[in-house]
């Protein structure tokens, strides 16, 4: 099959390689030419615009940063819509606003072009290992058409409903992830303030009901003070903004989500937007007072 892929960052590059390994021809576009070079070395064709990618493709994937980026590469000047053929398929695997997804889908449907929203969970490691969880919204026939391609990217594919359902599910996923990360930051800060070995406490928590993949991944980085790995905090800020927008539109109270957004805002305000999300623990620590964790009156000889 003739595929196109737009967005060759940490997630997109390994995804392209998996699709090519499945025997498909590949056309790619990236704003930075050097991002496409390793894929060209593997046999992909670099194109000068998203429209040029679409002209060469039966299915076009997009995996870019935010809502405005998706709108630009699909509907903007030299966007996919100006090169794609009637009957082709667009699969957006970015994490964006569901309302915008539905608006883009309606525009494309008017031209006989199907679109799926298919955000993923698993992060860069999941992309490298072809172990992504893919949550899909859109027409069932389009999902079945894309299924063999999705299977090259991850073992878990769930069709959740019509256009926007995948993005809404991803927003719910990110809410749970971020609130849990906030909880881990508070628990491990408390452990450290009480004089305990933070990593040992994390290991105990991982053996109990509090265990989670968030505590395993981000908690490890919090305990080791490694804030350089993973997905940048500024991207989670974008995701949580989408979550709170959905909450406002649906009249849903998200008190924990709103509080977590305050911490993420503080992290961004400290100039740490490119640090890993585990850096949330530094905000909690800075909010703590300087008094001893255990009152001297309660100590024993």
Walkthrough of the structure:
There is one protein chain. The chain has 2 domains: 2-161, Rossmann fold; 168-287, N-(1-d-carboxylethyl)-l-norvaline Dehydrogenase, domain 2, CATH 1.10.1040. Helix 8 (165-193) crosses helix 9. It contains 13 helices and 9 strands. Mean pLDDT is 94; it is low at 292-301. It starts with a strand and ends in a 14-residue tail after the last helix. The protein has a 6-stranded parallel beta sheet, with helices on both faces. It has a 3-stranded mixed beta sheet with strand order 7-8-9. The chain is of the alpha/beta class. The relative contact order is 0.09. The chain has helices at residues 12-21, 33-41, 50-55, 67-75, 98-109, 123-128, 140-150, 165-193, 198-206, 213-224, 233-250, 255-269, 280-287, and strands at residues 2-6, 25-29, 45-46, 59-62, 89-92, 114-117, 120-121, 133-137, 156-161.
Number of domains: 2
Give a short account of the largest sheet.
Answer: 6 strands, parallel
| Proportion in β-strands | 5-15%
Question: In CATH terms, what is the fold-level topology of the largest domain?
Answer: Rossmann fold
Give Rg in angstroms: 21 Å
Order of helices and strands: EHEHEHEHEHEEHEHEHHHHHH
Percentage of residues in helical conformation: 40-55%
Task: Give the N-terminus to C-terminus distance in angstroms.
Answer: 75 Å
Q: List low-confidence stretches.
A: 292-301
CATH class division of the largest domain: Alpha Beta
Query: What is the assigned CATH homologous superfamily of the largest domain?
Result: NAD(P)-binding Rossmann-like Domain
Assembly type of the shown chains?
single chain
Number of strands: 9
Number of helical segments?
A: 13
């Amino acid at each position: 099959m003739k595929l196109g892929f737009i967005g060759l960052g940490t997630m997109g590059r390994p995804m392209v390689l998996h699709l090519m390994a499945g025997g498909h021809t590949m056309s790619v576009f990236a704003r930075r030419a050097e991002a496409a070079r390793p894929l060209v070395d593997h046999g992909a064709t670099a194109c000068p615009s998203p429209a040029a990618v679409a002209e060469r493709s039966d299915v076009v994937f997009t995996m870019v940063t935010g809502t405005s980026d998706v709108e630009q590469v699909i509907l903007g000047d030299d966007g996919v819509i100006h090169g794609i053929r009637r009957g082709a398929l667009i699969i957006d695997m970015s994490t964006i606003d569901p309302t915008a997804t539905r608006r883009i889908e309606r525009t494309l449907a008017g031209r006989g072009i199907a679109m799926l929203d298919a955000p993923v969970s698993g992060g860069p490691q999941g992309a490298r290992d072809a172990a992504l969880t893919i949550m899909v919204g859109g027409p069932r026939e389009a999902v079945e058409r894309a299924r063999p391609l999705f299977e090259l990217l991850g073992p878990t594919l769930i069709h959740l409903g019509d256009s926007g359902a995948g993005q809404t599910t991803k927003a719910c996923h990110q809410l749970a992830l971020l609130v849990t990360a906030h909880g881990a930051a508070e628990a491990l800060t408390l452990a450290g303030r009480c004089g305990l070995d933070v990593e040992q406490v994390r290991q105990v928590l991982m053996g109990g009901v509090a265990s989670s993949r968030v505590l395993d991944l981000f908690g490890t980085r919090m305990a080791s003070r490694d804030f350089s790995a993973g997905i940048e905090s500024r991207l989670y800020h974008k995701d949580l903004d989408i979550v709170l927008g959905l909450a406002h539109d649906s009249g849903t109270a998200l008190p924990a989500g709103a509080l977590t957004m305050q911490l993420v805002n503080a992290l961004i305000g400290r100039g740490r937007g490119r640090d890993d999300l585990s850096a949330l623990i530094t905000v909690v620590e800075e909010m703590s007072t300087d008094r001893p964790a255990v009152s001297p009156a309660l100590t024993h000889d």
